[in-house]
Design brief:
about 140 residues, alpha+beta, five-stranded antiparallel beta sheet, 9 strands
Length: about 140
C-alpha cells in the first residue's frame, strides 16, 4: 500500500521516499541486511557497505526508480538497492564482477515485494542485457 500525504510517499516495506527532481529521494535511512555481495567495506556520503553484505543507504539519497519500466510498489525497494549498487560499481567501490550479484538481488527483492515473476524476470533480463552501460565507470568519476 502506498500512502501519499503532503508530497511524502511511504512504502510499507520500509522504504520511505518522496518525488524529487531526480525522481525519488530517500527520507529515512534504509538498511538492506544482505545484498549477497561479501568482503567489501566502504562508506560514501550516501552508501555504506559492510563485509557481511549489509548495505545502508542514507536519507537524502536520490534514485530514478526503474529504468525503462513503470515504477510500482513492488519495484521501489529493488530499484533503490540496484541503483545504489550500480553507483558503487560506477565509483569503483565494487568491482564490475559484482554487477551480476546486483542484478540478481534486484530480481530477488522485486519478487519478495510481490512483483509477478514474469515481470520481474523481464526486468532482470533488461538489466542483464543493458545494465553494463549504467554500471561502467564514467570518465573523471571515481
Amino acid at each position: 500500500m502506498i500512502i501519499v500525504k503532503d508530497r511524502v510517499t511511504q512504502l510499507q516495506l520500509g522504504v520511505h521516499y518522496r518525488d524529487v527532481s531526480y525522481k525519488y529521494q530517500l527520507l529515512r535511512d534504509y538498511v538492506h541486511s544482505d545484498c549477497s555481495i561479501y568482503g567489501y567495506t566502504f562508506k560514501s556520503p550516501f552508501i555504506e557497505m559492510t563485509n557481511r553484505g549489509e548495505l545502508k543507504v542514507s536519507a537524502g539519497y536520490a534514485w530514478d526508480g526503474l529504468s525503462g519500466g513503470i515504477d510500482t510498489r513492488t519495484s521501489m525497494r529493488g530499484s533503490l538497492v540496484h541503483d545504489a549498487l550500480y553507483q558503487c560499481l560506477r565509483m569503483k567501490m565494487l568491482p564490475q564482477e559484482c554487477r551480476a550479484f546486483a542484478d540478481r538481488e534486484f530480481l530477488r527483492v522485486c519478487i519478495e515485494d510481490g512483483m509477478r515473476k514474469l515481470r520481474a524476470q523481464w526486468m532482470y533480463y533488461v538489466v542483464r542485457c543493458c545494465g553494463w552501460q549504467a554500471a561502467a565507470p564514467k570518465k573523471g568519476e571515481s
